[in-house]
Amino acid sequence: MTKAGTTVAAADPSATAVRLPRRRGVELALIVPAVLLPVYGYCAVGLARYGTVPPGAAGYGAGLAVLALLAHLVVRLRAPYADPLLLPIGVLLNGLGLVLIYRLDLETPGHEAAPAQLVWSTLGVALFILVVLVLRDHRWLQRYAYVCVVAALALLTLPICFPAVNGARIWVRLGGLSIQPGEFAKVLLAVFFAAYLAANRSALAYAGRQVWRLQLPTGRVLGPVVAIWLLSVGVLVLERDLGTSLLFFGLFVVLLYVATGRTGWIAVGLLLAVAGAVTVGRLEPHVRGRIGEWLHPFASIEAGQGPGQVAQSLFSFAAGGVTGTGLGRGHSILVGFAVKSDFILATAGEELGLAGLSAVFLLYALLVERGYRAGLALRDPFGRLLAIGLASLVALQVFVIAGGVTGLIPLTGLAMPFLAQGGSSVVTNWTIVALLIRVSHVARRQYDGRVAP
Amino acid sequence: MTRHIRHAAAFCVLLLVALLVNTAWLQVLQGPSYGGNPANRRPAIARYQQPRGEILVGGRPVTGSRDTGEQLRYERTYTDGPLYAPVTGFASQLYGTTFLEHTEDGVLAGTDPMLSGFPLWRDVTRGRPPGGHVVTTLDPAAQRAAFDGLGARKGAVAAIEPTTGRILALVSTPSYDPAELSGNGPAVAAAWARLNHDPEQPMLNRAVRQTYPPGSTFKVVTAAAALDAGVVTDLDSRTDSPDPYRLPGTTTRLVNEADGCENASLRHAFTWSCNTVFAKLGVDVGVDGMRAAAEGFGFNDEGLRVPFPVAPSTFDTHVDRAQLALSSIGQYNTRATPLQMAMVAAAVAGGGQARAPYLVERTTRRSGGTVSAAGSRPVRQVMRPTTAARLRELMTGVVTDGTGRNAAIPGATVGGKTGTAQHGLGNSGTPYAWCISWARADDAMEPGVAVAVVVEDASARRGDISGGGTAAPIARAVMTAVLRSPPAG
């Protein structure tokens, strides 16, 4: 458990405590390629399309570098023990997302999304800096658990008052901006789940009766679970947002299991999830269509209506092969609507190939792994659950959307963290990374003999 | 708690493995089958991503490409669309390709493996070599002369170089502009519908895809058969042929448009196109002899490619003697494409040797290197050289004295045969005026051109006068153009 940064220096036996390496230099060294790779990608797109390096390449690289360096400085000042991988991974994924969106912008003149995404990324990094600066101790969040859940519920129900966009009611349009409040609600709910479960761990684990081999919880503690389940299904029905419901529910089940260690919870959770999904799948034509498209992605081709979005997405991935077509040389634009958001991975798959896509998946896996490692290293239950919750959030979201566009599971509208177009998503993901930085800072600081715990 | 965190981590690893395995399966194993799905536009996009190679006539491209900036980027253009349409065909983003655009598509589109110097490297970079060029055998002056000669009339011209089989002109009118079909918009669909429903059939390539009753021009074949079979040994001795001729086994009497055909010599009968003499000659030669001669010239050959397929010309071999008599004067089931009749003239001009006609001189890379070249073609001896020499004498007579005087060219020896073919129920269809001929410049060792012209001519009332009146001037214009052209390099 103490693997995270235990380069124990035994050189000075007279010292009363051993100084733990802070690893900020490693972080800085990793930020350099994390900035250079997207700049290279940006140049590659320009070279592939016009034979010249795009004029904005230097400015773009400088902007990304300044953002990354500012974030690095703040981490160095306020969270010096933080995990050195988290920030570079965030920078790299965000930069790659900007490159992919810029590349797709070339196919949709007049509907450029990259500039807005850059502004949102700046906002995201600003929020990252704010969180790292202001949140001195993550346990402070535990006090505001119920504020968080109320805010999350408010954010979730807000889009119901706004018109549906493309079949899903998950956007709030204010002026020219469209915001997806469900994204922000994710983090708030993770905080609430972690706080609630940290407080009620024993009651959930040891109360209740045994049915066959399952330890079932009592009615009193079952209440919140059922409430959460109803909430997920409610969101699904009212907003037709299968992805968010799945995400919340998965997050809750994972945290419940981690907190209590009861497999009974998983069984109950899965039963409820299946019951809910089957009911909604039967009743809701939008969801039923998605399931039909998953089972038979080429049905519309056979019916003579041309390929559907999932079919186009599969064509994109297949066209990529092992090495990909190269940035700017693919035709993922054929996917059509949502190619820059939900289907952004199709562009990555076609132009970067299996090699590039696997690298992207491994980057996410590394991000999740660092979260889990911080969770393992921490001692307070809230901190552990918060770290696990945030990391699982990323893992589940990547799986649900990546599995959806590659035909592994039914497609649900979720944004690929950092890569996809969408301001709310980028800002939320930077917040998640900021929280993980804080948590990992606390997790590693406790091993530094020179710092009082 | 730690143990359960590890379980949850294991679950996340499971998700990652599922994603990686699924992606690998999708991108590596499913790639080829998804890439070949007809609903996948990527092959079409790749095909039109680069300009198509050019088709060259007389060293100059008659095609081009236009950058539309659309998804299917390059569209075909044609410098003289209607003039070369029977050769180039069209290259449409909606309706595929025809003729040379079709048969040479691999070279033109850049997919021919021969175009790529390093195929393995191309596989790695996924590059596609630029489209190569197709150099045709056409003579632009002859093509233009034939097209202008036909003008607004319906008809076709095919011209061949007898010593090689190179096709010098291939014209069909009325024609169309293949550029109208290049793109993929609604205008293209409208043009397609209009062209297909046009009663004039502008997209029909009459020179190679349409057969016509050859009428009197088929008498060249019959004369060759009679001379080769020894039925006639002297061009100027009397034949035993009545006028009118009663078709064997029937009461039908065959008459002549010309005078003096009773027992006429072969020379007189050929010069003035006596039906009775040639009908009887055909019967005297017999089915086997007639078939051997006709098939020697290329009739009943279903495999002729120039490189696009040519409609087979037919000489019916399951006939009674009356039908054989009619077949021998180019009626009944005898039908020929203009290209086939040009081959007949070419075989006579070329000393009885028939060469398979071809249209593509060579194909080259964009950089100029040759990909493939028309090698030496197989030669068939169709008739005895003496027979060919006598036929040349007969055909020359037609031009100097007979029905083909309109084909004469000063400074050249010209041989020809005209004809008119009635057709339709009770001969109600518009008659076809024919002229087949060849020419040798006086300073040349070998004849330089053989040509066949067919024109649908409402004014053709009396047989060979019309063939000589409407078709022969066109043949003369084409032959003059070829003889004046500098020799192809």
Describe this structure in words.
- The complex is a heterodimer of chains A (453) and B (489).
- By secondary structure, chain A is an all-alpha fold.
- Chain A has one domain.
- In chain A, 66% of the residues lie in helices and 2% in strands.
- Chain A has helices at 24-50, 57-78, 86-105, 114-134, 145-157, 181-206, 219-239, 242-260, 263-283, 285-295, 299-302, 309-320, 344-377, 381-405, 423-445, and strands at 172-174, 177-179, 210-211, 214-215.
- Chain A has a two-stranded antiparallel ribbon with strand order 1-2.
- In chain A, strand 3 (210-211) and strand 4 (214-215) form a beta hairpin.
- In chain A, helix 1 packs antiparallel against helix 2, helix 6 packs across helix 15 (423-445) and helix 13 (344-377) runs antiparallel to helix 14 (381-405).
- The radius of gyration of chain A is 23 Å and the shape is globular.
- Chain A starts with 23 loop residues before the first helix and ends in an 8-residue tail after the last helix.
- The relative contact order of chain A is 0.14.
- Residues 1-15 of chain A have low confidence and may be disordered.
- Chain B is an alpha+beta fold and 489 residues long.
- Chain B has a domain at 209-366 and 374-484: 3-Layer(aba) Sandwich (Beta-lactamase).
- Chain B is 38% helix and 17% strand.
- Chain B has 18 helices and 18 strands.
- In chain B, helix 8 packs antiparallel against helix 18.
- Chain B is elongated and about 120 Å long.
- In chain B, 55% of the residues are buried.
- The mean pLDDT of chain B is 89.
- The chains are: A mainly alpha (453), B alpha+beta (489).
